[in-house]
Structure formats: C-alpha cells, structure tokens
Design a protein that fits this description.
- This protein has 155 residues and is mainly alpha-helical.
- It has seven helices and three strands; from the N terminus they run βββααααααα.
- It has a three-stranded antiparallel beta sheet, with no helix packed on it.
- A hairpin with a 5-residue loop joins strand 2 and strand 3.
- The longest helix is centred in the last third of the chain and has 14 residues.
C-alpha cells in the first residue's frame, strides 16, 4: 500500500501518493491507493528521428520534439507522416500551437494523460494514420470524464 502524504497548497490540504520519478498523484476522496505503473516514453532518440527529415526542416523538428518531452515519438512521427503527405507546415503549426497547454505536465505523465492522448490521436486521425473513430473515442472520453491519467497494474 502506498504511503499517503499530506501538504497544504494555497490553504487547501491535499493528499497524494508518490509515484515513480518524483511524480505526485493527488487523491480525490475514495481513490484507491495502490496506484500502479504510469506508462512513460523511455529512451527515445530525438536526434535519430530528426535525421530522417530534409536538412531545411531539421531544426524546426528538433525544436518541436524538444517541446514535447515525454511524447517526442508521437510529435516527430506526426511530422514525418505529414512531410511524406506534403502537409508538414500545417501539422508543424498545429504542434507548435499546443505546448503551452501542456507545459505544466511532467514529461513522465505525457503518455498517460488522456488530454495529451486525445490531441495526438486527432492529429494521427487527420493524417489518415489512425481510425477517426479512435480519435473521436478519445475526445468523447475526455469530454465525458475530464482529464485523467492511465495506469497499469504493477508488474
């Protein structure tokens, strides 16, 4: 069983458990305490991904990839698909416009957050790489239940 910690934030007493890599999971009433494992992006080589792009796009791809720490595989793969389809500029702008919405998210939570997943699923669906139904399902879950964190049972 995870240890429940308490802290006061802006005058409000909050309960949380520590997950891996210094992540704090704040608890709502009646939340199970055996939190589980949070999926994270491990060992992604941004420079290898950048090397697959034409020279004139490499710096922009690198900058976009760096702004999506924890979700660099998705960001760079979307740009690669878009570049192959001749729509690099459109998707680069969409990715460049979003980091401010995600800047407060710890990189180790980027894969697990439902709002981030819905954003990337929509990009993949719009590119024709993922089924539109999957993007709609992600967006519907986000709309119906709000932002959540996906966790897997501890192995």
């Amino acid at each position: 069983m995870a240890k429940i910690n308490t802290e006061i934030r802006e005058g409000i007493t909050c309960r949380y458990v520590n997950a891996q890599n210094g992540i704090k999971l704040y608890l709502l009433p009646n939340v199970p305490l055996d939190a589980g494992e949070i999926p994270i992006e491990k060992g992604f080589d941004l420079e290898m991904a950048v090397s697959k792009f034409p020279e004139n796009l490499k710096e922009r791809v690198r900058k976009i990839g760096q702004s999506y720490s924890g979700r660099q595989l998705d960001a760079t793969s979307i740009l690669l698909y878009a570049e192959e389809k001749g729509s690099f500029e459109e998707y680069a702008k969409r990715l460049e416009s979003k980091p401010k919405d995600f800047e407060y998210i710890h990189p180790d939570l980027m894969v697990a957050r439902t709002d981030v997943t819905a954003f990337f699923m929509r990009l993949y669906a719009d590119l024709g790489v993922a089924p539109k139904e999957e993007a709609e399902k992600s967006e519907r879950l986000l709309s119906d239940y709000g932002v959540g964190v996906v966790m897997f049972p501890r192995s």
